[in-house]
TrEMBL record:
<protein>
    <submittedName>
        <fullName>Class III extradiol dioxygenase subunit B-like domain-containing protein</fullName>
    </submittedName>
</protein>
Length: 240
């Protein structure tokens, strides 16, 4: 069953080498993410699954040791999803989506060696019921499962945001922050998928996977970080 979860944003800018001169602007978010990953380690999981949004080619499971790269963002930096296993040559070569690559970078940064790691790329169109089903399946994978859930809120908080300014964005993000901070699975499952799409909120489906995994687990939540740099809603939360 699910014993702990960490929710983190997934912009490649979270990686200092990608952000370059703008790296200090996300220092607070990086620290919160490090604290959240530390909680996952303290939960002593038997399995950690990193969940994040993915385009069609990268949807579905990714095995431990799967490669990721930030070359598409102008940086010659590669990561792997958890420590590469000894038989890695026989493993998949499919590239991690950017969200899982950021998750892999967070784990590498923490020196993660506390449990086996897998990944799950989730498609933006996946409806809430199927997200919840996927989460329940993950929660049943081991006696003690932890999730690292990658996803951003709306991208429409300011005029210079990627999705321009949308007056609905602030209220949407406030609802997400409240649900994540309270470990409110019902509120997450009730997020409007169409509105999330219009607001370019890439975290909607991964958060609903988390909600399914957490059903009946009795976890409490705590919001560690909430901000909207670059006009995009970023949240860091822990459930335990």
């Amino acid at each position: 069953m699910l014993v702990a979860a960490a929710v983190c944003p997934c912009p490649p800018l979270l990686v200092p080498a990608v952000a370059s001169g703008a790296a200090p602007e996300l220092d607070a978010a990086r620290k919160a993410c490090a604290d959240a990953v530390g909680l996952l380690a303290a939960s002593r999981p038997d399995l950690l699954v990193v969940v994040g949004p993915a385009d069609q080619a990268a949807r579905g499971p990714h095995l431990q040791g799967a490669p990721g790269s930030f070359a598409g963002f102008g940086v010659d930096l590669r990561v792997t999803l958890g420590p590469a296993p000894a038989d890695n040559d026989a493993r998949e070569e499919r590239e991690l989506p950017p969200s899982l690559a950021v998750g892999a970078w967070l784990l590498e940064r923490s020196g993660w060696s506390d449990a086996p790691v897998e990944g799950l790329g989730v498609g933006e169109p996946l409806e809430a019921a199927r997200c919840a089903d996927a989460g329940r399946t993950l929660g049943a994978r081991a006696d003690r499962v932890a999730l690292l859930v990658m996803g951003d809120g709306s991208a429409c908080r300011t005029l210079k945001a990627p999705g321009y300014l949308d007056e609905r964005a602030t209220a949407f993000d406030e609802g997400v922050a409240s649900a994540l901070g309270a470990a409110d699975t019902r509120a997450l499952l009730e997020l409007d998928a169409e509105l999330a799409y219009e607001l370019k909120a890439a975290g909607r489906a991964p958060w609903q996977v988390l909600a399914g995994a957490a059903e009946g687990a009795g976890l409490g939540g705590r919001l560690l970080y909430e901000d909207a740099p670059y006009g995009v809603g970023y949240f860091v939360a822990v459930w335990s």
